[in-house]
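Per your request, structure below.
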């Protein structure tokens, strides 16, 4: 695995307040989508969303997480990615039904998969129990354009974004004009023009250093320390137990009577949690959820 895989690598222009960040996810991305039975187009869209979410998560300055949720009236009804301030990433996608999945099989564009809809970006400060949300419409048949619109409207931070994904790799390039400083308009325009020459194949095939060298070899940039991204799912048996307790003993017993066991699958990682009659009895005996580890891989 190349040294710069599964990292967000930041760069700063030495003579302008412009930040460049590159993410290239391989193992983390493969772990994220391995349990999802999606069309090629939907898988690619989930990968682009995962790369963008990892980039956005680097802006979190407190203990918390960012949630990116796309909802639409198209075959791809739901796209959800979540990344913590420590860059623990997970994601999932949902289609309306099998017919919609078949209908979407040949599509790789956002409009083709999602139709009309919106993207909600929610930042959670878990320590202070606060939430901040911005909502943007699906823009210009592109996840990247939608995120750019979000930064322009919600953050007032000029931002450009390029995303690419296949089954093996999910990558992204983000450039931002940072507040303050003495950045000239021509410097920002030049940074954008150069970035616009990047291709999807280059994003998928080159590591961060090669991407930046390819685009900005004539510019003076300083590389900062990269931050590792890992697949991380917060599902755990005690959380599932708490949900079952919320359903109530009568409903859980009805499921047991009909199916012989209760089966719950995590939508993010596919982990399967099974409860038999003995487990259910223990679940409601003292009201204490069973403990279990989070999923970190």
């Amino acid at each position: 695995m190349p040294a710069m895989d599964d990292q967000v690598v930041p760069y700063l222009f030495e003579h302008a307040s412009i930040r460049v960040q590159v993410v290239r996810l391989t193992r983390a991305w493969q772990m994220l989508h391995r349990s999802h039975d999606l069309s090629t187009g939907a898988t690619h869209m989930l990968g682009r969303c995962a790369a963008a979410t990892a980039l956005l998560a680097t802006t979190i300055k407190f203990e918390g997480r960012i949630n990116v949720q796309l909802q639409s009236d198209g075959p791809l009804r739901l796209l959800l990615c979540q990344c913590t301030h420590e860059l623990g990433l997970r994601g999932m996608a949902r289609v309306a039904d099998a017919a919609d999945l078949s209908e979407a099989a040949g599509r790789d564009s956002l409009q083709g998969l999602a139709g009309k809809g919106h993207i909600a970006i929610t930042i959670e400060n878990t320590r202070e129990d606060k939430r901040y949300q911005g909502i943007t419409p699906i823009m210009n048949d592109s996840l990247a354009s939608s995120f750019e619109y979000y930064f322009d409207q919600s953050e007032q931070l000029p931002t450009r974004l390029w995303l690419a994904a296949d089954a093996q790799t999910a990558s992204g390039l983000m450039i931002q004009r940072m507040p303050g400083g003495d950045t000239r308009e021509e410097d920002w325009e030049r940074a954008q023009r150069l970035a616009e020459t990047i291709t999807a194949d280059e994003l998928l095939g080159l590591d961060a250093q090669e991407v930046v060298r390819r685009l900005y070899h004539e510019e003076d940039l300083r590389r900062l320390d990269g931050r590792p991204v890992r697949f991380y799912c917060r599902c755990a048996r005690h959380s599932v137990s708490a949900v079952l307790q919320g359903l109530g003993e009568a409903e859980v017993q009805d499921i047991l009577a009909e199916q012989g066991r209760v089966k719950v699958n995590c939508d993010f990682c596919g982990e399967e949690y099974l409860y038999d009659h003995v487990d259910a009895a223990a679940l409601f005996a003292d009201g204490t959820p069973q403990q279990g580890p989070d999923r970190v891989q």
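Residues 40-57 form the longest helix (18 residues).

Regards,
D.
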